[in-house]
Every structure is written in structure tokens, then in C-alpha cells.
Amino acid sequence: MNEKLARAIQLIEQGQHEEGLKKVEKLEKEANDETKRTISELYYELGLVDKALSLVEPLMFAYPDHGELFAFAAECYSELGKEDEAIDMLTEIKSSDAAYVQAQLLLADLYEHQGLSEVAEQKLLEAIKNEPDNAVLQFGLGEFYLNRGEYRQSITYYKKAIYQGEMPDDLPVNPKLKLAEAYSATGEFEDAVANYKEGLEDDETPDGLFGYGFTSLQIDDYETAISVFNRLIEMDPDYTTVYTYLAKAYIAQQKLDEALQVLEEGIKKDEFNEDLYLELAKLQFSRGNDQKAVEFLEKVIALNPSNISAVKELLLYFDEEEDYEALIELLEFLDNYSEFDPLFERYRGKALFEENDIKGAVKAYDIALESLSKDEVLLEEAATVYLAAGNKTRAVTLLEDFLMLQPHRFDIEERLIELKK
Length: 421
Hints:
Layout: H1 3-13, H2 17-30, H3 33-45, H4 49-62, H5 67-79, H6 83-91, H7 100-113, H8 117-130, H9 135-147, H10 151-163, H11 175-185, H12 189-202, H13 206-218, H14 222-235, H15 241-252, H16 256-269, H17 274-286, H18 290-303, H19 308-320, H20 324-335, H21 342-354, H22 358-371, H23 376-388, H24 392-405, H25 410-420
Helix pairs in contact: 1-2, 3-4, 4-5, 5-6, 5-7, 6-7, 7-8, 8-9, 9-10, 9-11, 10-11, 11-12, 11-13, 12-13, 13-14, 14-15, 15-16, 15-17, 16-17, 17-18, 18-19, 19-20, 19-21, 20-21, 21-22, 21-23, 22-23, 23-24, 24-25
């Protein structure tokens, strides 16, 4: 590297940015093409993408057969939000060029970002036809299919990358950890665990540890899950997702005090984490601390009225406690946020019926039945409400629907006979 440039970079690394950049800019005017290329990369790393692009563009025209220049320019355009220009640059790179594989990977990312998944897939498959043993391309296809939720396909290419190709050392993540993630997503937990163990021996990352712990939890290996999750917290206490799952592992072993402590520690790290409050609510219910549980559920709903799990937990509690006033108040609160679930209307109908609002109850059950026409509990409840509203025909129809689902409910059969007299 040019000595003057090396000195300028040293100044920048030492925090003397202004002085270092001045030296780089001065050197830029007298530098040869190779040094200009290095300076453009430096600008890119420093976030000065416009300056990087202004240097590399003339080099592209001077060296039209150097695909790596076009690929670098494409990365600059992409960073600047000019995706179409980036795609134009990458399509200029010939299949015989050493940068062709990199170009196809970049093109796939760009097309995927634009929502053109099929085109992205095509680019990757075209590239791998040219270089069927290229481990980077195989890994790229594994990533592509994993991100799309096509886990079987991703497993195929991750395995090819690991066992058939020569993997470079500068990949952003250990391929075996990604293979383990894919196996876990397909429910092949034993294979996932084996790959997590191997991958973590080489590269112990927070995501890898979380995946290993989560997979262990799925196969009821709570001891391993607890050990791995605690190791992750030691490595990265701000990885707040882990606290909920560590608590679940403790709860499965009936270690409720430990679970409570973990959840409280998690909330100290992230006071807006809905999952932590929801898990705390469930834990408090199990310990008989209903009022505390309700407070935690209300906290979740205040943070996010769209958290259906918390809403359903609270509605169920109010229903079981026959606190219909609180139930209706909660649903009216959710109405302000346009939150809807047919189950909400079932609860609303029951509560309004108990509060003697027959007309309101009928309206709610009408809505619920549009989506839950096979719900036996709903059918039986709704029949009672329609009878109270004087709609005997509708009640009979609902009870007949109920008997189709539960033909051995002779009490309902007898009730129908009476209604049809």
C-alpha cells in the first residue's frame, strides 16, 4: 500500500478523522489507479459512499473487463438506494469474469429486496450451473431458501456447502449453525442439536446459543436448555428474547422462583418486552396471584392492543370470574384500536346477554358465527340467546348444527324435540 495512504489511514484509525481525510483527498488527486481503488474502498468503509462511487466510476470505463469494479459500484449504488442502477452494473459482468459469482449473489439480494423472489432464485440457480461446486453459491442458496421458509431446500444447499465445497473463512456465520436452524424449523430436532453442538464448538455466537437452547426446549431437554440459555445471558445480557424461554424451561421443571427471577431480570433489561409480561402473567396465575397476573396482562395490552394472546388470556379470566362489566370494558377499549377477532364477539355476546342486553348479544353472536360456525360452545350459547330474543327458528338451526358435531348429546336432542312441537 502507498505509504502516504497508510499514514492517512493510521490517523483515521487513531481518531484524527479530519486530518486523515484531508491527506486522503490530497493523495486522491495524484494517485495511480490501484491506489484510487483502495481509496474508494476506504471511503465506502467510512460511509462516504458518494465519494467512493465518484472514484470507482472512471475506473470502470478504463477497465471494462474488471468485473470487481462493477460489483463494487453496484454495492455503492445499492447503499445509496439506487437499486436499478446497481442491477444495471451487475448485469454487465460476464459469466467468465471472476466477479460473476459475487455479482449473482448481489443481484439475488437486490431482486429479493424488490419482492422479485423468483428472479432472485433464477439468478442464483443460473450461477450455480456455471459453478456447481461453489460453496459460497450453495451457501447463498441455503440462505435464500431459509429466509423464504423453504427449509427442506435450504438444508439441501447448506449440506452441499459444508460437505462438497471449500468454504471461505470470511462467511458472516458458521454454516453448521444455519443448517441446525433449518433442521430445527422442520422439526428434525435431533439433527438440529447435533449441528448446533458442532457449529458452536467452532463459533459460539448468541444466535447459535439461542437456537441450541430453543431446540433443546422443544425436545424437553430442560437441563440443556437452562445451561445454554444461561451461557447466552453471560455472553450477552441484552439478548432479551432469551429470558422468556429460560423462564419456560424453569417452569417446566417446577422451578417457579427461578423463573420469576429470570423474568424480572429480563424486564429490567427491556421494560417494553410484551412476551416477558405475558409469561409473568401466566406464572402469577399458576401461583394463585390473580390480581398481579391481571396487572401484567393489562400492561401488555397497554403496550400493544394487537397482542391477541394477552387479550384472550384476560378475556378468559374475566369470563371465568363472571366479571362481565370488566370484560365489556376491555372489548370497548379494543374497539378504539379496530382490533377484531371472532372470539371477541363470542365473549361480548355472552357478557351482554348476562347484562340483559339481548339485542346487543344477538348482534355480537351474529358476527361471531360468521367465522366460528363449527364452534360447539358458541352454537349452544347462541341458541340460548336467539331463543331469548324470540328467534326460535334460528335457535333450532343452531342446535341442529350442534348435533351434527356432537350426535351423542341427547340433552340437546330432547331440547330440539321440545322446540319443534
